[in-house]
Amino acid sequence: MKVKGIVWLGTRTANFDAMVNIYQNLMGLDIVHQDPDIVVMDWPNGDRVEVSGEDSSYNTFFTNPVAGFLMDNIASARVKREAEGIEFIGHTEFAQDGTAWANFRSPDGFFYRLTDTPDHSLNK
Fold it and tell me: What are the structural domains of the chain?
């Protein structure tokens, strides 16, 4: 269960339009999904940024930016971390493209995410 890198960043903000503008126009990220209260953008290497508005139904427990760690095997990683006493929030989620994620609370009280992104460049 090797961590391959930090490949995902999520944030929930009251300044939704301004944050989307920074990522899209200042950093040059491409929007790959957009709803009124969430925008998903990708870096050229497959890393992902998600910006949720404060009224979004997504990521409602976020209180600060959250980093996602790419794992070799998310199911095994989760079982091992739970056995170590790490608290996970909800179930492991699965998207149609094969991406999976599980959110957990670290000992410092912040949230992080284990991710499994089959098409990420680090998996090739």
Answer: 3-123 (3.10.180.10)
Cα–Cα dist 122/124, whole Å? 6
What would the 3-class secondary structure string for 67-85 be?
EEEEECCHHHHHHHHHHCC
How many CA atoms, within 13 angstroms, populate the side-chain half-sphere of residue 69?
A: 17
Query: Quick check: 6 and 117 in contact, CB under 8 A?
Result: no
C-alpha 9 chain-centroid distance? 5
Q: Whole-angstrom distance between the N-terminal and C-terminal Cα of the chain?
A: 16
pTM over 0.85: yes
pLDDT tens sequence across 38-88: 999 999 998 999 999 999 998 898 989 999 999 988 999 999 999 999 999
